[in-house]
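seq:
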Amino acid sequence: MLGKIFKIINSKKFKDTCNRKGITNRQMMLNSIKILFMSMYFNYTVSDVVNKLNRSAKLRKFAGFSKELPTTEQIYEFRSRYSAE
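struct:
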């Protein structure tokens, strides 16, 4: 199920929606959303998910992350800029 969610997040339609909503750093938004979904899905804290992603190349590949991941602080700071709408 999580793989299907990631396919939607990586879709052109989703990226176009981010652009229309005025999100300037789209890659950071995509990475943050993926990490937040993983956190909810596995019932882990965001910092635990980031740590597991940093340790596991296989997990990074599954989630579609590039080599560099945002830190926990970057995710929370970026998320605080936007409302749920």
